[in-house]
Write a structure and sequence with these properties.
Two copies of one chain form a homodimer.
Chain A: H1 8-16, H2 21-28, H3 32-50, H4 62-83, H5 88-98, H6 107-120, H7 123-134, E1 140-143, E2 159-163, E3 168-172, E4 180-181, E5 192-201, E6 204-214, E7 227-231, E8 244-248, E9 251-254, E10 264-265, E11 271-272, H8 281-312, H9 331-366, H10 372-401, H11 413-420, H12 430-449, H13 477-504, H14 509-515, H15 517-540, H16 545-565, H17 567-571, H18 578-595, H19 599-604, H20 610-613, H21 624-633, H22 644-660
Helix pairs in contact in A: 3-5, 6-7, 8-9, 8-10, 8-11, 9-10, 9-15, 9-16, 9-18, 10-11, 10-12, 10-15, 12-13, 12-15, 13-15, 13-16, 15-16, 16-18
Chain lengths: ~675, ~675
Amino acid sequence: MASSAVNPDIARERQKATFDVDQLTYILYDGPAKTRRKRYLQNLVLQDFAKLKFKPVATLPHEEQYEQALDRCGRAAALEDNLALKDLRELYYFREAVAPQVAVPYGVHYSMFMDTLERQASEEQKAKWLPLAKSYRMVGTYAQTEMGHGTFLRGLETTATYDGKTKEFIIDSPTITSTKYWPGGLGKTANCCVVMAHLITKGVNHGMHPFLVQIRDFDTHQPLQGITVGDIGAKIGFNSNDNGFLRLDHVHIPRENMLMRYSQVLEDGTYVKPKNSRLTYGTMTLIRSGIVGQAARALSMAVTIAVRYSTVRRQSKIDPGAGEVQVLDFQTQQMKLLPLVATAYALTVASRNMTAFYMSATKKIEKGALEELPQLHALSAGLKALSGWEGTEGVEQCRLACGGHGYSHASGIPKIYGNVTPSITYEGENTVMMLQTARYLVKCCTMLKQGEKLPTLMRYLQQPLGGSSKLNARLDLDQLVEAYEHRAARLVHEVSEKLETAAKQGQKPYNAWNANSVQLVDAATAHSKAYVVKSFVATVSTMTGKLRQVMENVCRLYAVTGIIKCLGEFMEDGYISGLQSATLRKGLTDLLADLRPNAVTLVDAFDFPDGILDSALGRWDGQVYQALWDFSLNSSMNEKQVLDAYHKYQRPFMEYQWKKHPSVTVVARL
Amino acid sequence: MASSAVNPDIARERQKATFDVDQLTYILYDGPAKTRRKRYLQNLVLQDFAKLKFKPVATLPHEEQYEQALDRCGRAAALEDNLALKDLRELYYFREAVAPQVAVPYGVHYSMFMDTLERQASEEQKAKWLPLAKSYRMVGTYAQTEMGHGTFLRGLETTATYDGKTKEFIIDSPTITSTKYWPGGLGKTANCCVVMAHLITKGVNHGMHPFLVQIRDFDTHQPLQGITVGDIGAKIGFNSNDNGFLRLDHVHIPRENMLMRYSQVLEDGTYVKPKNSRLTYGTMTLIRSGIVGQAARALSMAVTIAVRYSTVRRQSKIDPGAGEVQVLDFQTQQMKLLPLVATAYALTVASRNMTAFYMSATKKIEKGALEELPQLHALSAGLKALSGWEGTEGVEQCRLACGGHGYSHASGIPKIYGNVTPSITYEGENTVMMLQTARYLVKCCTMLKQGEKLPTLMRYLQQPLGGSSKLNARLDLDQLVEAYEHRAARLVHEVSEKLETAAKQGQKPYNAWNANSVQLVDAATAHSKAYVVKSFVATVSTMTGKLRQVMENVCRLYAVTGIIKCLGEFMEDGYISGLQSATLRKGLTDLLADLRPNAVTLVDAFDFPDGILDSALGRWDGQVYQALWDFSLNSSMNEKQVLDAYHKYQRPFMEYQWKKHPSVTVVARL
C-alpha cells in the first residue's frame, strides 16, 4: 500500500454520524468486554496470518483452495490451544478469522460429526469414540444426502442389513443414485463417517438409523475394501472443502457401530425402539437459528463492502455545474443499499431473538411442556428459509450495486455469495421448509375453529380480519407490525378455507395441498416476515438516546420496504388503501434521505476487520483503487509478461491467419 | 456413459406434448432450412471437439480457462475458413459451439475493435489498418472504462495531448484511477488498442476521441515503452478472457493514429469538428439489442436444464400412498420454472422485434427522418436493462430450482450465470440505462402538453388515465396489454407531475430529478415491460393451430406473473380491483397446470445440443446421475487417492492433535 491515509470522503462520512458507533457495536457483541475479546481473538489470527501472504482464496483452483484451508487450520491449531477457548461465540469469532467465509475441511468433523456422536451414541460408545474423535484419530463427517435423494429422508436407498451369524451390519449402496453425495470433508479428509441408512433386521425395515463406518485406513489414509470415495468436483463456492461421494459395496461393520443411544439392535437381531422420537427436534432448531445468523452475517459483510465503496466511488453529476458525486448520493443507490443495511440488522436481531426463544422454550420442554415444540419448529423452518432468501439475494444486490468491480473477486462479494447461497438448498430446501411452516399454520386454524388457545407466536391469528390499516405519515412501528400480522393472518385463513372447501368438495387432501401450495408458501413467508418485523421492533424499543432514533428508522425502513415489495398482498382485501400506498412510498424515500448520513457508521458498527472482509472495495480506509491495483498485479496471469499460452496457442493461430493474407504489408510499428 | 437409453420419465414428457416441437423451433430459427444449417454448423464443431475431451471449463483456474479458450479458437479457425461463413447469425451459432457461454480472448478484437475501425477510421486509415486487423497482425481491443470511471464518460482521465512540433499525440494516464481497466483481451492477448482519451490540442480539451495505440511488440509480444499492461485477476465468470489493465506513461503516437473519420486534428494542431454527432446512436442500439438476445439465450439454456432435470428428479410424495413424484409435479416447482420458460420466450421475441424495429427505423433515419432516433434509443436502453435483470435473476432461479446439485459446476448453470450477469453493469449500468429511458418518457409528457404528437412506441401515453381494468377470468391478452400500458402511463405521468410541481416550488431540476429517481426507474421499467408484453402478444397472434393455443398461454403466463409480482402498482389507483387480483392468482395456478404437460417440449424447442448446454442435469436423454458421477470422477481432486496435501498439511495437523492426547487408546480398525 502506497498510501496509509484514510480516503477523505469516507472520513467525512464518519464525522457526519448522529450516533456513537461503539454503542451499536456493543449491542451486537454483548457489551464492551465481549467486543474487546472478539477483537483480540480475531486480530491475533489476522496479524499472524498477514505475514504469510496467502493468495486470495476465491481466485485459486479447487485443490489449492483445499490446501490453503488445511494450512490455515493447521497453523491455527496451536493458537487455539494457547487460548483454550471454551465459549462457543469466542470459538466462532476465532474461526471466522482463520478462514473468513470459507468452509474448512474439518468443519463437519467438529460440528455435525462430534454432535451426532454426543447425541446419538450410547454412553459406552461415547467413552470409546469421543476420545478418538477429539484427538483426530478419527476425522469424521456425516453422510445422509444421496445423489438421487435429499429432502425426502425415506427415499434414501442405502441399507444396513444385520447378519445375526457374523453379528455385523452389511452397509450397501446398491445403485448410482444411492451414492452418498455432498457431505463436507468426505472426499479426501475424513477417515470415518456417520452413515445414515435403512436399518434392516430379521427382514424388517426400521427406517433411517446412524452407523459409524470407517472409510479410510487410519495410517495410510487409503480407502478400505468396499469403499469408493472421492471429491464431487468444483462448485460455485465451498471449494476449500472436499464435498465428497461415497459408495459402499457390502461393507461389513460390527453390530456395535450402530449408534445406539435411542434405538438398538440386540445380538440376536431384535430391534428395540426408541422411547421418544421428538427429542431431536431441538437440535434441528438450533442448527437453523445458526443458519439465520450466518445469513445475517454474510449480508452484513456484503453491505459493509458496498456502502463503504459507494461513498468512495464518485461517478456522474447531480448538479451539472458541480463535480462528480459519491454514488451513495443518488437516490437509486440508496434504494439499493439502505434497505439491505436494514435487512442485515433485522436478520441479526431475528437470529438472536430466535435463539433466546429457543433457550427459554427448551427449559419449558425439559420440564415436560412439549406444546412449545411445534411453534418453535415451525418458526425455525420459516426463518431458515426467509433469511436464506433475503440474505442471499441481498448479498448479490450488494455486488451489483458495486458496478463492474463487484464482478471481480477483488470485491470479495462473490466469495461471500458462494458461501451463503447453498443455505437455500441445504438443511432442508427452502420451499419445503416454508411448506412445513404452512402445515403448522393451517393446523392452528383448525385449532382455532375447535376453540383451542393458540401458542404465543400464533396468537395474532385469533384477531378478527376485515377492517383497514390506520397507517399514516408517521409510519408508526406498531401500525407496521399490525400490517404484517394482518397480511399473514389473512393469507393463512384464506388458504385454510380453500383447503377446507376442497375437502368438502371431495378433493383428496394431498391434491388440494399441492394445488394450493404456492399460496401456502406465501402464507408461511408472511408469517415468518411478521415475526422478523415484530422482533426487530421489540429489540429497537429497548435502545436509548440518539441510537434509538436511528435504529427506529432502520427498522421502519425494513418494514416499509417489505410492504412495498409485496404491496398487492396488503391491498387486495382493502387493508391498505391507494392513499396509504402513496404515503408509504413517500415515507420510503424520506427514510432513505434520513439514513443516508449514518450509512457508513451503520455498517462500521458490524465491526468487521479488513482481514475478514477480504475486499479491495470494502476497506475501512477507503483506499479502494490502490487495493484493486495490488489485487490485479497478483493475478496468476501476470507471473510472466508473455505467457506460454502465447507461444503454444496464440502465435500459431496468428501465423495461420498471416498465411491466409500473404499480400498484407507488414509493419514493425504503427 | 454406461447407459444410452433415454430416461423413461423424460421420454414420457415428450409424448405428452400437444404441439409439434419442430414448428416452434422453426419459428425461433427462421424456418426449416436455417434450422438445419444451425444444427449442421454446431454439430460440426461439437463432434470435432468431443474427441479432444476438454475439461469442464468452469472448473479450471483462470490461466487454464484462458489457455483452453485460445486452444478452442485456434482449432476452430480452419473449420471456419472451410465453411467461409458470411452470415452473422451463422457465425454466431458456429461460435456458440466453439466456446459455449464463454467470452474468448479474441472476442473484442473481432467485434468492437474491428467495428470501431470500420466506423470511425477514415478511408485512408481503413485501407492501412483493416488488412492488418483481419490478418491478425494487429490483435486489438477497445479501452474506454477506467478503474475510477465507467458510465460517466466525461469523467475519464486519460489524455491525448497534441504536440505540434513532433506531430505526435502524447497519451497519458496520470493517476491510478485513470488506469484503463476491464477491456476484454487487453491483459495478455492484444497488441493494439483503441484508447478513448480526452483530446487536447492548442491547450483546449475537445472531449473523448479514439486513438489507435500499439501496446506490444508485433514480434516479441513484449509491452512497448511507457506501457504497463496485465490481467486484472479472477472474476465470477469471463475467466477464459484476459480482461486487462493498461497504464500509458507519456506514450507517443503519430498524429495519424487518431481515428479521423469524424473529427480531425490537422498537422498544425487545429481541431476540426465532426458534422453530425448523432450517427453513433444506431450502433449502440444494435449492440443493446444483441445484449437482449444474449440474456434471452442464457435464460433459455438455464431453463432447459432446470425443466428437464425437474422431470427426471423424483423427490417426496404428493399422494402418501403412491411413489415419489417428478418434482415438476409440485405446484411450487412449476411456479419457479414455468414463468421463466415464458420469460425466455418473451425476451427472445423482444430481441427479435427490437432488431426488426431498428432495421426499419434505420431506413427512415437514412432518409433523414431523425425523429425515430430518440424513441429507439430510449427503448434500447430500457430493454437492455430489463432483459439483463430478468435474464440474470431467472438464470439464478433456475439454478436454485435444481436443489443442491445446481450449486455444482456439473449443473452448468453457474457458468451461464457468470457469463450473463455482467450485462447488468456493462455497456451502460442498468439503473443509469433506465434513467435515460425515463428522461425521454418525461420529455414525451412535456411534448403531449404542448400538443405535439408522440412517436409510435409512446402513443399509449396519450390515452386518458382513470378508469378501471376490464380483466376477467378469460385473461384476454389485449386486456393484459392494456393493463401494462395503463400502469406505465400512470407512473410516467405521475412522476412527470412531481417533477413539474417541484420546479414550480423552485426546486432545482437536477435535485428534483434525483429525489424522484426511484420512481423514474419504476416508470421506465414499466414502459419497457409494456413493450415486451405487447411485442410478445403481437408475435403470438401470428402463430397458428395448436402451437398458437400453447403460446398464447405462455404469453399469458408471462403477463400475469409480471402483474402479480408488481400487483401494488396496478392496484394503487384502483385500476385492478381486489376481486381481479384473486382472478389473476387463480388464473396463474390454472396456467401452470395447463402448461405443465408441454414443459419439456417448450424447452426442447430452443434446440440446444448437449454440447452447448454442457450440463449433467440438462441432458436431452435425462441420464443425469450417470453424468454427475462422470463429472465427479474427473475432479482434479481425484487424480490421486491420497493427496500431497494430506502429507503436507493434514497428517502433521493430526499428529499435533495426537500428541495432545497421549492417553487415547489407538485402534487400527473400528
